[in-house]
Amino acid sequence: MPAPIIAIPADTRELDGYNWHATPHQYVNAVVKGTGATAIVVPALESGNDIESILDRVDGVLVSGSRSNVYPELYGKPVNEADGPFDRARDTTSMELIRRAIDRGIPLLAICRGIQELNVALGGTLETEIQEQPGKWDHRRPDVPERDRMYAIRQSVHVKEGSCMASILGTGEFQVNSLHRQAIGKAAPRLAIEAVADDGTIEAVNVIDAKNFAVGVQWHPEYWVESDETSARLFKSFGEAVKAYAAARR
Ligand SMILES: N[C@@H](CCC(=O)NCCCC(=O)O)C(=O)O
């Protein structure tokens, strides 16, 4: 059977003076090594993507992290340029893919910016500069030059008993990385909160009554997928859902 295909929405990036549609290699690598599927990158467009046509041809959606933030107006907050950088084309593409994948029962894994887009797409809100809130830990990307140290596993998350995430990872405390300054504020009605950090930051959600795998995590399992058991389990579970969807589709 041909390898299943997982769609990854791109970011808009300016390189050499012009715009590119780009996603970091770590997400493509995690698709290939962590699920056994093939990755395709979906251009970030505010208009012009035929989302249904794209979803007709894929077996899963992986929504990646990004330094850019979801545009605040999309969750009812005023725009403060300090909350940027923004990427409206990424917002549009990701959220259309998220909503339609959930409706169609296409397996979905949303990571970091992805869980934030998932929450906004389903009607939730975000908080910004969470490290400035009383009692909050500093979840931001460590200010170090080496990417392995940026993505170092350095915080605990607590997975709720009986949750979807518990069926994937197990119940209890797990060690993960952290590279974000925003987080879920008001969780969307259709999201079950399934893991939190020591400071209460929402770290994992599951779409209630989803037809298929539909999970969001605030940490970055893609980065250590080949060496960290917790990361590998999440991608293995996503991959199983993608393969089952692909087999049923053929
Ligand atoms: N911009 C959002 C989401 C953070 C995120 O996706 N981080 C991954 C990229 C990390 C990096 O290279 O800086 C937020 O800040 O909450």
TrEMBL record:
The lineage's top-level taxon is Bacteria
- UniProt-listed Pfam families: Peptidase_C26
What keywords are assigned to this protein? Answer: Hydrolase
Q: Which InterPro entries match?
A: Class_I_gatase-like, Peptidase_C26, PuuD-like
Claim: Hydrolase is one of the keywords in the record:
yes
Q: Does the keyword Cell membrane apply?
A: no
* Any GO MF annotation of the entry: hydrolase activity
Q: Which Gene3D superfamilies match?
A: 3.40.50.880
Q: Which PROSITE patterns match?
A: GATASE_TYPE_1
What is this protein identified as?
A: Gamma-glutamyl-gamma-aminobutyrate hydrolase family protein
Species: Rhizobium alvei
